[in-house]
Amino acid sequence: MQTRPDDGASSRFGRGAPTASRSPAFPIVRWADRTVTFEPGSETAHDPHDAAVVVFARHDDGLVLANIPGRGWTVPSGRMEDGETPEHAARRESYEEIGAELTGLRLIGRFRMWLDDGSEMAAPAFVARVRRYGNLPPHSESAGVQVVRPADLPAVYYQWDPLLEGAFRYAEKCSALTASDAECDEDAN
User: Fold this and answer.
1) How many helices (H) and strands (E) does the chain have?
2) For residue 10, is pLDDT > 80?
3) Distance between CA atoms of residues 188 and 54, nearest Å
4) Range among 24-28, 40-44, 127-131 with highest mean pLDDT value
């Protein structure tokens, strides 16, 4: 993705945010103090901006969501701990927030975030199948777990927007594939 040079005039997006002249396949949106988009891809190389993870956890006919106080219904997600790989963080967050045991964990891209203070963060996004869920550990921040059909996500999901719609559609496509990662990446949105 092309980024805008730090010319001091990028206050709306923050320094390094994507340019409007070359739109990514996914929309650019505002989430509180940050500008966000999604970059599809299955490169497993560590990105120095990786700070959190997101897991699209699939079970039967829907996605398993956690009810997180202050955020509402959302996919398992959260900050990476010191020394933790994105894959380990994805498994840990899924266990802590939805009590899930995952199979077929697969990287599908990264959410890219540019904060108003000029810093950049990334959150690797994964798809996985959920073998079991719901037995939350005692230290869980989750107040509940439910499976939501894709068609019902806009009415249930915390702060639904065009970026989330595209990312969920892409995750659904990637989780359904039995072919190579390259086929998932071919038409990102």
Assistant:
1) 4, 9
2) no
3) 17
4) 127-131
> Which amino acid is located at 163 in the chain?
L
Average pLDDT over residues 69-80: 96
Residue 65 to residue 148: CA distance in whole angstroms? 7
Residue 59 bridge partners (DSSP): 62
12 pLDDT tier (thresholds 50, 70, 90): very low
What average pLDDT does this structure show over 159-182? Answer: 84
Specify the DSSP element, H or E, that contains 168. Answer: helix 162-176
How many Å from the N-terminal Cα to the C-terminal Cα in the chain?
15
Tokens of 26: 């996914």
Give residue 45's pLDDT.
76
Cα dihedral sign for 37, 42, 44, 45?
A: negative
Cβ distance 171 to 127 under 8 Å? yes
> How many other C-beta atoms can be found within 10 angstroms of the C-beta atom of residue 40?
24
Looking up tokens 């739109």, which residue turns up? 23
Q: Are 149 and 60 in contact (CB under 8 A)?
A: no
25 versus 149: the higher-pLDDT residue is 149
Whole-number CA gyration radius for the chain: 16
Q: Write the Ramachandran bin of 144: left for phi over 0, alpha for psi from -120 to 50, otherwise beta.
A: left
